[in-house]
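Weekly modeling sync, notes
Attendees: S.R. (lead), two postdocs, one rotation student

Agenda item 3: backlog of single-chain predictions. S.R. asked that every request posted to the team notebook include the full sequence so nobody has to chase files. The rotation student volunteered to paste the first one in as an example of the format we agreed on. Action items at the bottom.

Example entry:
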Amino acid sequence: MESSGRPKKVLIILSSAKDVELHNGKRVETGFFLNELMVPVMKLKDAGYQIIYANPTGTTPAMDSRSDLFLWFGINYSDYKRAKRILLREMTQAQAPGGSLRIPRTFASITDEELQTFAGVFLPGGHAPMSDLWQDSNLGRLLMHFHESFKPTAAICHGPVGLLSTRLANNDQFAYSGYTATCYSNHEEIMNEALWMGKMKFKLEDALSDHGMSLHNRFPMLPNLVTDRELITGQGPTSAWRLGEAFVDALEQGVPQGTHAQGKTPSLYADTHTSAAGTTSSLGRSPALHSQMHTGSPSMHMSSSPSLLSQQTQQFPVGEVGQRMTHGVSTSMEYTPEQTTTSVSAPSETQ
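Predicted structure, as returned to the notebook:
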């Protein structure tokens, strides 16, 4: 299928992990998050795109059972039912590898020549990617193609952790250093840690920031979409609709030429109908670790101290910025009924 000379095929990157190991050794069952995968998939299918699924091992991916709620679909029961129908079909159909979720392609099986046939790539969320995607060199090779070809690249929630794999295929250089993005925030992760009674080995917001990204994150669970050049990122499950629409738009219209080398001003999209008049919220990373355990309050600050970061180096490849322990990104947001204003201070280069 072709449109305006562009291929109509999209690669969807999934994890092979069925759980995530916490810092205390506890393992929590997880997988992909239903609406973060299926809402963009439905928009891609409606636009006529062929979807190819892939993960590290070619095994059927797991779904996070906590995501199987129609509440995550904006209380839109029809969208939820359609997503479940598609999921059931793609989990049970016996198609050629990659044609359904039942038998994904392996990353290694996708050749450099075949990559030319894809219009874009999408990395959905759920905690599973935190277990394997960031350390997969074959994924790094795939993503470098989309980055160097300037093809639309979308990621939501924990999906952006897969972007870190580009270091393994790019001489230890993070391909998206200097980009602006959003992801599942530290404040949201703290709530999961309180529920699970254990801390993550590393937090995604910290990891991306330490590798040179600027993060625009909103208050937990509010819709948030950020685009910078070919990269389109959504903060969490409530951003799935905006991300799906923006991804399809980028696939149809193409990424503007001439922005790759010099960069362009990121576009920020945020729903404001849920904002409270006059409410000001400040989100940021403190230069010190405030507590070894957290209660899950969304107002608490979280950061990695030098001692904690050194403990994590066995599980997470700390970049040059992380080794210097910069303060990271401080994000503040002011909400009014008319608009949402986001201001970001870039990571410090020296400390």
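Discussion: group reviewed the output briefly. Residues 15 and 129 are 5 Å apart (CA to CA).
Action items: rotation student to repeat for the remaining queue; S.R. to check formatting next week.
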